[in-house]
Specification:
Order of helices and strands: HHHHHH
Strand content: under 5%
Helix content: over 70%
Largest sheet: none
Number of helices: 6
Bound molecules: hydroxy diiron-OXO moiety
Number of strands: 0
Radius of gyration: 19 Å
Length: 182
């Protein structure tokens, strides 16, 4: 009896995702992993600025993006494809300011929503209803992520240049009032 790693895929293993869908899902793995990298860099920047709550929020968000990538990888492999671990580029180290951080987050999330919708559309064209169903979790998650980013930006707009307001915003994040969830 061979070790499973040596034996490779059983001959009977049937590929249940088309190459097109597999490639699109693998491309999304890269996007989610890249989001995780970007949020990690933002978290480090916030920590250096003394924004402990913002840093905690972003570290957690980075972990969640990694989980989004991992969930896709597991799904690709379960469906007879091969999930590929992507190479990642170095994200920017410095940010212009806290407002800029949350503007980029919103922009990033809007882009990810568009990408998820693109794969959902592809699944319908390919008649891959299983992957279509699997992706509904991501569709719901993106609504929540965009909502959260918009709420943060609204709060920061209200605060404007008020340092006391920023202190309270940061403290609220530290107490977990606005932590991401997914
Ligand atoms: Fe994975 O949801 Fe944000 O990017």
């Amino acid at each position: 009896m061979f070790h499973p790693a040596i034996r490779g895929k059983p001959q009977t293993a049937r590929k249940m995702v088309s190459k097109k869908v597999e490639n699109a899902l693998n491309a999304q793995v890269e996007k989610e992993a890249m989001s995780s990298q970007v949020y990690l860099a933002m978290a480090s920047w916030a920590e250096v600025q003394g924004l402990e709550g913002v840093a905690a929020f972003l570290y957690q968000h980075s972990d969640e993006e990694r989980m989004h990538a991992l969930k896709l990888m597991k799904y690709i492999n379960e469906r007879g494809g091969h999930a590929v671990v992507p190479a990642l580029t170095k994200p920017p180290k410095d940010m212009k300011g806290i407002m800029d951080v949350f503007k980029s987050i919103l922009q990033q999330e809007v882009e990810v929503t568009g990408e998820i919708n693109g794969i959902v559309d592809l699944c319908l064209k390919e008649k891959d209803y299983t992957t279509h169903n699997f992706l509904q979790w991501y569709v719901a998650e993106q609504i929540e992520e965009e909502r959260l980013a918009r709420t943060m930006l609204d709060k920061l707009n209200l605060i404007g240049g008020d340092k006391g307001g920023l202190y309270l915003f940061d403290r609220d994040l530290l107490s977990g009032a606005s932590q991401p969830h997914g």
